[in-house]
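>> Question from a student workshop board

For tomorrow's exercise we were told to take the sequence and the ligand below, predict the bound structure, and bring the output to class. My setup keeps failing. Could a helper post the expected result so I can at least see what it should look like? The ligand is guanosine-5'-triphosphate.
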Amino acid sequence: YPPERIRNFSIIAHVDHGKSTLADRLLELTGTIKRGHGQPQYLDKLQVERERGITVKAQTATMFYRNELNGPGTSEAHNPSSFLLNLIDTPGHVDFSYEVSRSLAACQGALLVVDAAQGVQAQTVANFYLAFESELTIIPVINKIDQPTADPDRVKAQLKSMFDLDPSEALLTSAKTGQGLEHVLPAVIERIPPPRGIINSSLRMLLLDSYYDEYKGVICHVAVVDGTLRKGDKISSAATGQAYEIVDVGIMHPELTPTGVLLTGQVGYVVTGMRSTKEARIGDTLYHNKSIVEPLPGFKPAKHMVFSGLYPADGSDFEVLNHAIERLTCNDASVSVTKETSTALGLGFRCGFLGLLHMDVFHQRLEQEYGAHVISTVPTVPYIFEYSDGRYVGSVITLCSERRGQQLEYSFIDSQRAFMKYRLPLREIVVDFYNELKSLTSGYASFDYEDSEYQQADMVKLDILLNGQPVDAMATIVHNLKAQRVGRELVEKLKKFIDRQMFEITIQAAIGSKVIARETISAMRKNVLAKCYGGDVTRKRKLLEKQKEGKKRMKRVGSVDIPQEAFHQLLRVS
Ligand code: GTP
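>> Workshop helper replied:
Here is what the output should look like for this input. Compare the format with yours to find the bug.
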């Protein structure tokens, strides 16, 4: 079939307006499926689609149609009145507009089906614009005219006012009774332009969809835009650069029917030996190895609107769920999956969906098709939020200014990361600056420093006195403005770490002769030997030994014993 005798079209509609029923009638009319084959909505293949009466996954079927209006011919392929029609079924629900736009990329026209009683509905509008933006020829079909409440004239007026569609172009049909259906395919042939590809050009084909078949492996739906594809051809993916060989190629008639070749403008399937549908990037351009082609414009990527956690109903079934999700996402690339753990539910997954219906359908398919028992958490929607304190930036600035830092530079590396440069006194960062920085920023901040020059500062020497005697090991140099606070903290700390002794101890912090903080440790009343009246020498010795043992870890300053720990703790006060 040359491109002039090919038509690629879609049926778009609001949910329940009769799109699938119409598609079935067209397949019957062309003998693609037998009339009354017992299973309505042939293209709705999934169990959940049949149960819920909705189309989830877009399907494609090729039909051969002889347009008798153009007069009879000889053999089909050479008969000028014989046409190859590719019908691409699209989901009607708003969640699946991603699938709709995918399908439309392979079409030149669309049947816009509107229920004669209900008239134009929300998804009629949304789908119309998807088709309109793809520059498709739109044929309005007012369906269900057999209903008593049908009002085709009102619908025609709506089509005119909403979409500026000519009311005289609307077809009136009943997919139920068959009324008016004979006009549908002639209108497709007459009004929808043939595909515009170039026959003698290098191969360019668009990857429309993919699914995993138990026996054949990954099956890709493709539209050949330019050139010819044959079985055995070596092709490459523009997206991944990966090379493949065409193992099988054919059309969906409506089952996979090998043809060995797909020509310019045709829609069909290919089997390439891909291991996973993850390799099949929807919207990718496939071309012959070694040829240089301009990739086709891709599709709008799926946008996740609803997120929910999926957990195995029985914690031990994690592997079953993992496997089921892996397999199912092979057939539904529009779901995003990341692992997550919940304290209550254990190991599970956080999944992103196109909408609530999409989420429900995914859930149902997991259970029906893969036998996974799933608990799903309350769905959430994505938010973009800004921390009111500028994330961690605020606390870092506070920390640096408390440490007498002087800001030199402050910029954003990207939306997530800020860069700050400070001149900070070495004394202020040497002890616990890094720990503090890490804990204030939940570990996100990183820190590096280099030596700057000496700076003039108002520093004072802070002495610690025990019972009036300065302890040189405890003397420190601090900034004048901080001296009071540091002195206070030092004496309080020391009071905690120095045990009571046989006499009263005063702890003082002083700058020069000026005492700025003071604490007292009262004397211990009890004597370790107090209860040992005479007699038991061994016991006395033991107690004294024990006391001596304790003293080993002490530092005697003048008459006061200071435990090592106190010195360590002093370091942490700055
Ligand atoms: P989705 O696949 O979910 O988008 O729905 P759809 O638009 O494909 O609708 P579908 O073909 O499943 O039809 C919905 C209902 O309308 C079914 O119960 C059909 O039997 C019924 N229906 C379809 N066409 C006609 C018609 O011409 N007349 C009447 N009376 N009912 C119709």
